[in-house]
């Protein structure tokens, strides 16, 4: 296979692939930790700033909404710059926004800081994965991307518990400053050790022009896939931003032991993500995903509607994370089969925007349905639990429909049906120059 112009440009400068993966992994760790630590810290900064706990979902959703919009807009202009410099600018913006979160004086200033964090954090993820694709040869790219994506597990297992302990020792503002300082060091390391990434700027260095959004969204498989993605993310994020407040205020779980729950849940998620893939390959996304949906519905009902006092909270949270992991692996594996290569980059960009926006809508909806009661508890948790279960009920149907359509297309291709009947062909044709 001939080497791409991007790889050729990268190979002209000595660079350690291990160093590239380590640095981009560090960038992703900071980026993800900045997002995932905010919701567990919600009751801390809500108390410190005099914010009602029912608004925690709004604060979490503000980041994902901004990241969704920024990711969409960034796809149109980020390819005009050296990726290393663009990544540095985005990370510096994220660092400043994170530090500003630690300086917030109330709900409005904290919301503004989180919106700014999303504006810079969203494109930083896309740039990180693009740098890996540019600098790592195809033969080793999958392993490199897997290592970088493991940053989410590391942030969940290590980062969130540490952030909770840091806040316990030095106040809720300290984790924001620590993550900002860590991000500043990562930016310095990236600028010092990553080579310039300009292969895509040279003549012939860019990929063929991708079809527009309208052409991509004209295909039923794509629309169904995005609808399934929206259902999964909304059903999750109507609950997730409020878990920490619910555990402490409604169930009386001690604040100084909260880190144990997130550590245990992160470990379960880490293992689940690695064990579920082979099950999906063997039994299919519909079967495995349905098991995850049912298990998630049961734990949501038990945890938020009819919690039994005898059930250990850490055990319930671990089962909840297990269910989320099984469901997410199943649907992500299926959506990866929807696009063909000519449209994959645009498809994934729009899917990321869909994930972020659906997460924001779920978080915003939870803030509308929850209320702070006079006794200090959160009212309406049973309502958002039922809404979550209702949204998730549509996921197995979507898994079945999308999997059937994708399998039919793959079987048709295997039988040498002309490619015009596949998803890529009409889109590819539109992407070709006319005349």
Summarize the structure.
Helix content is 74%, strand content 1%. It has 435 residues and is mostly helical.
Walk me through the structure:
The chain has 19 helices and 2 strands. The chain has helices spanning 5-11, 17-36, 42-49, 56-74, 83-102, 107-135, 138-149, 151-170, 173-193, 213-217, 220-237, 243-249, 258-283, 285-304, 313-335, 344-369, 381-392, 394-414, 424-431, and strands at residues 371-372, 378-379. It starts with a helix and ends with a helix.
Number of helices: 19
Tertiary shape: globular
User: What is the CATH level 1 assignment of the largest domain?
Assistant: Mainly Alpha
Overall pLDDT: 80
Oligomer: single chain
Biggest sheet, spatial arrangement of strands: 1-2
Order of helices and strands: HHHHHHHHHHHHHHHHEEHHH
Based on CA atoms alone, the radius of gyration comes out at: 22 Å
- Ranges with pLDDT <50 over ≥5 residues? 1-13, 424-435
Can you tell me the CATH architecture of the largest domain?
A: Up-down Bundle
- Going by helix content, strand content and strand pairing, the class is mainly alpha
Per DSSP E runs of 2 or more residues, the count of β-strands stands at 2
Strand residue percentage: under 5%
Tell me the CATH topology of the largest domain.
Growth Hormone, Chain: A
Biggest β-sheet description: 2 strands, antiparallel
The domain tally reads: 2
What gap, in angstroms, lies between the N and C termini?
30 Å
Residue share in helix: over 70%
